[in-house]
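Repro case for the chain-ordering regression, as requested:
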Amino acid sequence: MGRQPCCDKVGLKRGPWTIEEDHKLMNFILSNGIQCWRMVPKLAGLLRCGKSCRLRWINYLRPDLKRGGFTKMEDNQIIQLHSRLGNRWSKIASHFPGRTDNEIKNHWNTRIKKKLKVLGVDPVSHNPIEQTEKDVSGEENETTQESISLIEQEESMEVKSEDQDKAKSDFAQVKDQKIEQDEVKTVDETDLLKSYEMLCGSLDVGSWINQETNTSTSYSSQESNNNLSAGEFHSIQEDSLSQWIDSVDSFLPWDSFNNLDEDLFFLENSQCNYMKHSVPKCL
DNA sequence: AACGAGGACAACCGCTATAAG
DNA sequence: ACTTATAGCGGTTGTCCTCGT
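-- result from build under test --
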């Protein structure tokens, strides 16, 4: 026989996550880490399947996520990477610490793709559309840089050739970084992991939130620790996640996470590598 | 103010590679 | 060696929001 099934889908909740569910999941993971996604919903008291929890964490709740719109430079890099990697979103996302594959995929489908089409560039082949229609062979094309340039022209009348050079050098830098990272990774990955864990662990979320709770008002309290033994969680009970996130947003400079990119480069190679490292695989 | 269209994005589905039993 | 669950990935769908009429 193989493993136990991940979840029987009977009675499981689907659709958008509520604040309370986010609260429970985040609470659980911050307190316990992730040992096995199959067990997470059960232990966290959620009526979701492990897969759904994993997705929610990776795409929305992870503390190292970068929030906000994509910069022009990021757009350029995405176009460059897409021209080389195609729809391998996770690979592309690995070049953007704090961005998820889902986020990049959505951004590509809703914005970049359209821009390229408007500019007469086929978003699949990165060739001019007329050329693509003639079924030009799919060799490495030179249109990507042109499309980037066109987009920049469209967005800004102050485009200079320096920008293109910068985009090129940015991309080259990304590649170089990647190589460097792969080399250095084996050396001090553990130390950096510890640093990251310290960073997360140093946030005394429970006591801090308790302080905040004293001034909070009207959120309905919800048990965040049902089905869990005492002491498994910190004392986050009364506040809502949204308040917590809002407060943390102002309290915690998310940019500082971004600034950690250099030090936490190993996170690039996987969406939650630190979990892989810090937690044994489910037995 | 009401309605519909389109956009943006979160979440789900289904497939594959890998690992556990 | 084989079976089967899991994690991860990319494609697709559903829902909410905004804007125009």
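Ordering looks correct now. Residues 213 and 228 of chain A are 22 Å apart (CA to CA).
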